[in-house]
Amino acid sequence: MLTVFGIAFSIYLLYNSTNIYLYIIAVVFLLLSSISGFFNIFSSYSYYRSNFYAKKIEAIRKSLRPLDYTPKVAVVVPVYNEDPVMVKNNFLKLLKMDYEKGRISYYLLDDSDKRYINDFLRNFCASAGIQYIHRKTRKGYKAGALNNMLKISDEEFIAIFDGDEKLIDREFVKDILPYFNDRDIAYIQTEKRYSKGSFFSDTVNLFDAFFFKFIQPSRALNNTAIFAGSCGMIRRSAIDKVGGFPEYVTEDTFFSFESDKKEFKSLYVPKVYALGKPIMKFSDLVKQQWRYNYGDTQFLLYFLRNRHNKDNKRMGALSKVDYFTHGFGLNYISVILIFFTVVSILIVFSSLQFASMSAKQLIEARYLGNYIEIAGFGVFALSLVTPVILTKVYFKSVKKGFMVLFLNFSLAFVRANAALSAITNFRRKNAWSGDYSKSSRRLPLAFRNSFTEVVFSAALFGLGGIALMLNNLSGGLWLIWYGSLYTSTFYFFYKYG
């Protein structure tokens, strides 16, 4: 519906344009609607295909048999300035992994630059029989730490967990290894999920839940499931064949792509073996989303630059679409939202007939024949309620649906900033910090960390007020509503720190 309404309204704008200003609005709206339409249709396709994955994975499970030998396995945990006590407690769970002793080794890759963390983790590893590896620089980020570890290890399979992930099923290695009877499989990715926390953290969990519930199963049907960085196992020979982990911020996406280029397969197992630490602070979510979008934009640029590479030509068209949508996904959610908002302002203050209609006029019988005009408002309305509807249908919660809606708007400028930073190859200094524990500091910190969004919201409120003064009730209310959505950045910083 979003796609049909958007394209129809774009054609209407082009048909009724009488000057260059209106033509620019129409062309931009058509471009945005086309991009949105592509993602809406692709998402629908993923939702549809994901329903068939349960049958496929069950058939694979029934055909599994143990490997005819006991391979050596490395369990690896890369960390950087994380709570050392948390890392220790989670590692103690990993040490209880059910696998033959002498055939499993444990590695803690500590890139922390705080001496007390280094000392604590080094002493813990010495007492627990864990190989401790510390680097003085973070060259290559997580990928650099993993590549450094590969130089001194010889295990055939590498199981990776993050320092904040607590193992809840000690059968992980025994369950996953049989899938590698297929010699073409490079890695197995299992479902990732956070532990339960607050309403806020549980809603944040839905970001990953949408991906692992719909996108991963759909991709896995093409043997192109994305490696998600942890809670997965990789065949060492596949890592060697692609030349190690690509040293980018999102090394997992790059590695998935490179292994596909080498014609390896991958598989997604929809079972949770470990739970990550819940994201309780909005500032932590902001940092995570900035890193994700920075890395995904890096990947998108890499993908586009190498689209004619001979290795890429071996990939199927659907696989290429999978990787393109993965790289552009968060940009679509964020940058397109901002552009749609700006176009809304232009439409409200345009000379188009419907732009000056009141809400009452829109619903009067004499205007009901203007279906295309109404479709334009339908585009904006559906773009807002769709996250709510999807969350209600798939996760049985309207409240969390509205929270997802507000979170997407609250993160729009953060994600857009990350994309711009990746394109310009400029990494801004992290400014989303501060001590929110002091009540006297919460307000100024929230304002400082959401300055761009506050200014943009104020502009929307002001323009909405002007539209109301010009008797454009529907347009004024629409801009004020948009302003409220972007104000959520300030609110979330203030409420959740």
Task: List the keywords.
alpha/beta, Spore Coat Polysaccharide Biosynthesis Protein SpsA, Chain A, 497 residues, 2 domains, eight-stranded mixed sheet, single chain, 19 helices
Beta content comes to: 5-15%
CATH class of the largest domain: Alpha Beta
Using only C-alpha atoms, the radius of gyration works out to 25 Å
CATH topology of the largest domain: Spore Coat Polysaccharide Biosynthesis Protein SpsA, Chain A
Largest sheet: spatial strand order: 3-2-1-4-7-6-8-5
Oligomer: single chain
How far the N terminus sits from the C terminus, by CA atoms, comes to 37 Å
Mean pLDDT: 87
Helix content estimate: 55-70%
Can you tell me the number of structural domains?
A: 2
Main sheet characteristics: 8 strands, mixed
Topology, number of strands = 8
Description:
The chain is α/β, with parallel strands linked by helices and 497 residues long. The chain folds into 2 domains: 206 residues, no CATH class; 228 residues, Alpha-Beta Complex (Spore Coat Polysaccharide Biosynthesis Protein SpsA, Chain A). The protein contains 19 helices and 8 strands. The chain has an 8-stranded mixed β-sheet with strand order 3-2-1-4-7-6-8-5, sandwiched between helices. Strand 1, helix 4 and strand 2 form a beta-alpha-beta unit. Helix 1 packs antiparallel against helix 14 and helix 2 crosses helix 12. It is globular and about 80 Å long. The protein starts with a helix and ends with a helix.
Quick summary:
The chain has about 500 residues and is an alpha/beta fold.
